[in-house]
Amino acid sequence: MLKALCASALLYSVICIFTVAFAENPAKTTSALPIEPFIAEYNIIHKADPVGKGIRQLKRLEDGRFEFSYNTQIDWLIFSDTRKEASTVSFDDAQVTPSQYVFDRKGTGRDKKYKWLYDVKNNRATNFSKKKQKELEIEFPKNIQDKLSYHLQHRINLINNTNQKQYSYPVIGTSGKVRDYAFEYAGEEELMLPIGLVKTIKFKREKNKRSTIVWFAPDFNYLLVKIYQKKGSFEQFEAQLVSVKNTD
């Protein structure tokens, strides 16, 4: 049971690194999309064995915004974990701006559920995670992201500037605090994945003894094709791309 709970804590970080909205005045896309809507399937791996599935998707909403989501289902020994994570975003050229973030986790250990609305223009954030909603005044920094949307922003940045070696994103967490997520270029690598042999570039993030590596494939328009994380000597999980298709 202790091993399962440790795995649960690590998996929370992996999945997070791998809607009431402001409907009266939603932000609109002002130019051609930097990324076409898509759906991608991943295998979740533990010690070389598949233990679950993940679905990452970008879809167009009726109000002109987009929903970027990552859903996973894992069953391993006595450990089970189901997660649904989604960020509602708008595009302005190469800039991603989140307006809503939702997260729902059920399974072994404590269940978690979060819902936030972001009014970036007016520096307001509303937390619906508690029984009583709470509105906060936050001085949003430029290029603010939520705990999922920064993956989308990172991909767009790679499409537009493949020579940059370091990227940093201000990310608002589920507590309302903003922290910098910094990634450093870690080289190129050919990977044998379920989808086939893929040429990739990889980036690494080190924080509080946690090491996260993400691989992006230029031939797939810099889609994230693999993510791996390790914290100390805890058990490790990773996600590997199985398939991808455009949905528009």
Walk me through this protein's architecture.
The chain has 248 residues and is mainly beta. It has one domain (2-246). Helix content is 11%, strand content 55%. The protein has helices at 2-17, 149-160, and strands at residues 38-46, 49-60, 66-76, 79-92, 95-107, 112-119, 124-127, 134-137, 166-172, 178-193, 196-207, 210-217, 223-231, 237-246. A 14-stranded antiparallel β-sheet has the order 8-7-6-5-4-3-2-1-14-13-12-11-10-9. Strand 10 and strand 11 form a beta hairpin. It is globular. The termini are far apart. Mean pLDDT is 87; it is low at 1-6 and 11-31.
Question: How far apart are the first and last residues' alpha carbons, in Å?
Answer: 44 Å
* Beta-strand percent range: over 45%
Total number of strands: 14
Spatial order of strands in the largest sheet: 8-7-6-5-4-3-2-1-14-13-12-11-10-9
Please, what is the average pLDDT? 87
Oligomer: single chain
Number of helices: 2
Largest sheet: 14 strands, antiparallel
Radius of gyration, Cα only, in angstroms? 18 Å
Low-confidence parts, pLDDT < 50 over ≥5 residues?
1-6, 11-31
The domain tally reads 1
State the helical fraction.
Answer: 10-25%
Shape estimate? globular
* SSE order, one letter for each helix or strand: HEEEEEEEEHEEEEEE
